[in-house]
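$ ./design --mode recover --in tokens.txt
reading tokens...
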């Protein structure tokens, strides 16, 4: 069976996360969005695990996969996938001696390097790889040029691309040739323009966490989907204060200090990926670029926010008619969408045809889009 999976989210026990990120709301958002496999996020947190236990079997029929993110030495973030909460508990116990906040913070800091963390994950039967691998603050490639520099002799099982990259950014890096790429939302809110904004289409043999992990391990990833990379906050090299964007050569010439305000210039994901590329692009599953439906409606109606009442009223009408958001964006004929709202129908068709003008983000500010 082919299932859409978002495997990286967070709980209210992590920093800067909505208090509404609770199992009931996340399952409801999954059904509205069209996500059939959800990662719990923050699976090392004991209370968060207990909140999920009664929802592992749920009326929505959604497969719940225990997942976690930890911050290791050098502020590198690692994404961890597990088969059950017993593995989460065992990993918690192994990492607790090296973490002062593993029982308090959903995304704990662990005083171990990538090789040591990966060895512990593998010892309990889990999977691990770099989270948002190209992001310029807390990622593998923000600190290192090669996987081995971080993970040593321990293999990685996956690599999460992050919102500012798609598959093409890693396809030309030779050491990643056999590593599965994942695209996940890293959502801090259950709102459907955040949750499920990136996902993976997996060929899964059974509706269980073990089957989901097997599909990833065996590279049965049929498609990645998510942002245009230019929409991400760190796609372009830019000043972190005034957000002025620079070429890589200009940033180097300015010694990574903005001549306008003296603030730091942060290297963008696009430039970093070009630096790391060392060969021809390998074959990868297709990457489908999508824009959340509520943001399309916001653009059409000209409102200030995708949460505006008239945006949500029209959004709910589409969900009531067609079942879920991803079905509207991918499968529903334009003429059927246009029965509800012709301008939204035209915008969705423009998205499908690639008639999107992108205004790249950088320096911590999201990019934007318009339709041609």
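writing sequence...
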């Amino acid at each position: 069976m082919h299932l859409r999976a978002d495997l990286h989210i967070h709980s209210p026990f992590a920093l800067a996360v909505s208090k509404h990120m609770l199992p009931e709301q996340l399952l409801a958002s999954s059904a509205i969005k069209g996500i059939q496999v959800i990662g719990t996020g923050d699976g090392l947190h004991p209370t968060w695990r207990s909140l999920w236990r009664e929802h592992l079997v749920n009326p929505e029929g959604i497969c719940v996969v225990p997942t976690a993110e930890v911050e290791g030495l050098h502020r590198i973030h690692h994404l961890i996938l597990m088969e059950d909460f017993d593995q989460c508990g065992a990993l918690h116990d192994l990492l607790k001696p090296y973490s002062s906040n593993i029982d308090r913070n959903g995304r704990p800091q662990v005083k171990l390097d990538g090789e040591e963390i990966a060895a512990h994950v593998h010892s309990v039967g889990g999977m691990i790889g770099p989270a948002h691998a190209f992001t310029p603050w807390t990622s593998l490639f923000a600190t290192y040029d090669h996987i081995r520099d971080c993970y040593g002799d321990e293999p990685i099982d996956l690599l999460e691309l992050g919102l500012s990259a798609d598959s093409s950014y890693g396809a030309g890096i030779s050491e990643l040739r056999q590593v599965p790429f994942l695209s996940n939302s890293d959502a801090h809110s259950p709102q459907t323009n955040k949750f499920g904004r990136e996902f993976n289409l997996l060929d899964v043999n059974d509706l269980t966490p073990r089957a989901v992990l097997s599909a990833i391990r065996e590279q049965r990833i049929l498609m990645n989907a998510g942002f245009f990379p230019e929409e991400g906050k760190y796609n372009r090299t830019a000043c972190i204060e005034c957000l002025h964007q620079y070429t890589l050569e200009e940033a180097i010439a300015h010694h990574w200090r903005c001549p306008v305000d003296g603030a730091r210039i942060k290297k963008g994901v696009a430039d970093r990926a070009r630096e790391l590329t060392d060969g021809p692009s390998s074959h990868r599953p297709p990457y489908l670029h999508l824009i959340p439906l509520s943001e399309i409606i916001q653009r059409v109606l000209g409102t200030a926010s995708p949460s505006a009442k008239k945006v949500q009223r029209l959004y709910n009408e589409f969900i009531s008619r067609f079942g879920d958001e991803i079905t509207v964006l991918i499968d529903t004929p334009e003429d059927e969408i246009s029965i509800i709202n012709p301008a939204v129908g035209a915008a969705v068709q423009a998205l499908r045809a690639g008639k999107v003008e992108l205004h790249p983000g950088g320096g911590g500010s999201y990019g934007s889009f318009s339709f041609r």
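exit 0
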